[in-house]
Amino acid sequence: MFLMLIIMMMITLMIIIIMLMIVTLMMNDDxxxxxxxxxxxxxxxxxxxxxKTGAERxxxxxxxxxxxxxxxxxxxxxxxxGADDHLILRWNLVNNETASLVKLPDDVFPTDMHWFPKAAxxxxxxxxxxxxxxxxTDGKFHIIGKTGRVEKSVEAHKGAVLSGRWSYDGSALLTAxxxxxxxxxxxxxxxxxxxxxxxxxxxxxxxxxxSDQVLFTNGRQLVIKSLQANAKPTMWKxxxxxxxxxxxxPVNSLILSGAEDCRYKVWDTYSRLMYSSSAxxxxxxxxxxxxxxxxxxxxSFNTLRLCDKAGPNTGSVFxxxxxxxxxxxxxxxxxxxxxxxxxxxxxxxxxxxxDATVTESKKIVVRNVLNDSYDKLDFRDRVIKASLAxxxxxxxxxxQCYIYR
Length: 405
Hints:
Layout: H1 2-27, E1 32-36, E2 43-47, H2 54-57, E3 68-75, E4 78-83, E5 87-92, E6 97-103, E7 110-115, E8 119-120, E9 126-127, E10 131-136, E11 140-145, E12 150-155, E13 161-166, E14 172-177, E15 181-186, E16 191-197, E17 205-207, E18 213-218, E19 221-226, E20 234-237, E21 243-248, E22 255-259, E23 264-267, E24 273-276, E25 286-289, E26 295-300, E27 303-308, E28 317-322, E29 328-333, E30 338-342, E31 346-349, E32 354-360, E33 363-368, E34 373-378, E35 383-389, E36 392-397, E37 401-404
Antiparallel strand pairs: 1-2, 3-4, 4-5, 5-6, 7-10, 8-9, 10-11, 11-12, 13-14, 14-15, 15-16, 17-18, 18-19, 19-20, 21-22, 22-23, 23-24, 25-26, 26-27, 28-29, 29-30, 31-32, 32-33, 33-34, 35-36, 36-37
Keywords: Membrane, Transmembrane, Transmembrane helix, WD repeat
Protein name: IFT80 second beta-propeller domain-containing protein
Transmembrane segments: 6-27
């Protein structure tokens, strides 16, 4: 009987302890929470981090971050960004520090940001600009100074303003909206003209190299429109899906487009296709040329790809003709040049101990596979054919035939 009493008392004590622990956890529920890491599908229990500002949590990959929808460089060492948490952040790439520039109103969600073009000074140097345009989902664009002061807010479109770009001379601002309109504004925010009224949203716009033409999207089509009155626009079907982003390089005058068909393409100003990528796994959501036009980058889901503008600067190659010996090809080019190509790096494989490669039009390099030694063979004339078999190398040039053991 006494033993049963002791057991009951112990059970009662354990119940009281468990209840106290539950009450303690409920009173301190801010200290622990269950969170889902974006980069790990497993659920974890851990100490809850204190609330951080946008500047404190900007560096590095963190879960539950607001999407960053706008960004723009001022110098190669300074970048500004805007996100759905209404913060405009300044990123210093020299010391890896981030600071909050301004907190936007709660109803302002950024969609695009573009700094005013740099002004040229003596000696050819350029100074940083002091203001930028910020487009938002409330149908407005905002002119904001480098200190964070909002200089002006302008009602621009019905629905979200999806893109805003300054002209290269800084005299005009180009905007595109969810309402299908493309508009040009003065630097002070006065409406100059409405270029078009589409039936679908315009997701991307770009200025032409001389700021006298405008490129914009229209569903699956690309449109180039001159600012001259009564000028007929150039329009063509560019993708099989809605075009999401465009860029027009002022140096090479080539147009870059990315779309929901998961492809990116390069065009000239006459709507001729220069390059079309293979289909990616996800839509191409962003494209951008480097300022010199030598490289471009494309962005997709979990993807950033760097591409070069391969090939010579010849324009369209209209005619091709091979030489009689099949070692050279000539092309008639749209920019007035004649392109001449030589077949090089022809690999000649021997299954036993050696291989050979035609490295130049008059040179062959032979490699001994066993000891990795090399022999270089120079010829007076172009190498037309070569064969390596049965322990012999046979080389035919335009005037002679050589046999090596």
